[in-house]
Design a protein that fits this description.
The protein has 325 residues and is mainly β. 3% of the residues lie in helices and 42% in strands. An 8-stranded mixed beta sheet has the order 18-19-20-21-1-24-23-22, with no helix packed on it. Strands 2-3-4-5 form a 4-stranded antiparallel beta sheet, with no helix packed on it.
């Protein structure tokens, strides 16, 4: 029988003392071998703040070309900067002119020059900053009379095709812009539980080929978009459920250098790995034969060294792991 993710959350009945002594005598002392569908991880470090504010529901993380870590600190409406040693260096996005301020920011990405693009959800716009936090520009999102106020929750940049993608959660769509001119090109999707749309998409990730992965939260799947095929939909990953290979409330997605797709489930607190065709491969574990449980894992991110950054939003931290495959 497949192990359920919810099993570790169920109460355990206390066993009598003599049974525990007998088990200690009979069971071998060597470590438990990992199951084939468990992928052990080792925690490298934790990012939790650095100044008196700390982190308050962080929502995204990125690494610059000079190895600084940028954390989008959602409730505090700012981007926090750490140097290559993990020491707090400052922040931006909070204070100053209203034009430069953030309100409930949810998504963040970098272009080839380390310019910082932020999904400024509370202001229904995209904010653009220099690597050091100087406000450069902004993009106001389109809204027709039939649509609700845009709600940008994430974004990604395709440097090869010079395209900017924005998730509009409230209107159940992905917006496509030219990166250089910041000109709106088209929308993809719409409100639907069928193959032609989304229901409250949240996160967005782009792999080395330019393929897009969109977390379609209420439809409990990750959708793929193929820009080389007219922005048509490719295969979906996952389905509703609480077994391995299934999703209950997916929130984050990231793709490693080998093309493996990692998806976080914020409610079940697990992270699963799928192959390029969307087939379940493994769930992250603690190395002792047990499924690794995170606290509301939201966004995921891989750096150039293959380290996995897990945004544990309601734990107010970013946890960094090495995958021990």
């Amino acid at each position: 029988m497949i192990q359920r993710f919810t099993a570790p959350l169920r109460p355990c009945f206390q066993q009598s003392g003599w049974l525990l002594v007998l088990a200690a005598l009979l069971l071998p002392a060597q470590p438990i071998a990992a199951a084939p569908d468990l992928l052990p991880v080792e925690q490298i470090r934790v990012i939790e703040g650095g100044d008196k504010l700390g982190l308050r529901q962080p929502s995204s993380v990125r690494i610059t070309s000079d190895n600084r870590t940028l954390v989008l600190d959602g409730v505090s409406n700012r981007v926090v900067i750490y140097n290559h040693e993990g020491k707090f260096q400052g922040s931006f996005g909070k204070g100053g002119s209203a034009k430069a301020e953030l309100s409930r920011p949810l998504g963040m990405t970098l272009d080839a020059r380390d310019h910082v693009y932020i999904a400024d959800s509370g202001n229904a716009r995209i904010q653009i900053y220099s690597p050091d936090g100087k406000h450069l520009n902004q993009i106001k999102l389109p809204q027709s009379k039939q649509q609700k106020r845009p709600d940008p929750t994430d974004l990604a940049i395709d440097n090869q095709r010079q395209l900017l993608y924005v998730v509009d959660n409230e209107n159940h769509q992905v917006l496509v812009y030219s990166l250089k001119e910041r000109k709106f090109i088209r929308t993809v999707g719409g409100m639907s539980h069928q193959e032609d749309g989304f229901r409250w998409p949240f996160s967005l990730y782009i792999d080395a080929t330019g393929r897009l992965y969109i977390v379609d939260v209420i439809n409990t799947r990750v959708r793929t978009i193929l820009p080389e095929k007219g922005f048509g939909f490719g295969h979906d990953i996952g389905r509703w459920g609480v077994e391995k290979g299934e999703l209950f409330r997916p929130k984050g997605v990231a793709v490693d250098a080998s093309g493996h797709i990692f998806i976080s489930d914020s409610y079940l607190g697990v992270i699963q790995m799928f192959d390029k065709k969307g087939r379940f491969q493994a769930v992250l574990s603690d190395g002792q034969g047990k499924i690794k449980h995170f606290t509301t894992p939201a966004r995921l991110y891989f750096d150039n060294n293959g380290l996995l950054y897990v945004v544990e939003m309601f734990a107010n931290r970013i946890s960094v792991y090495r995958i021990k495959s």
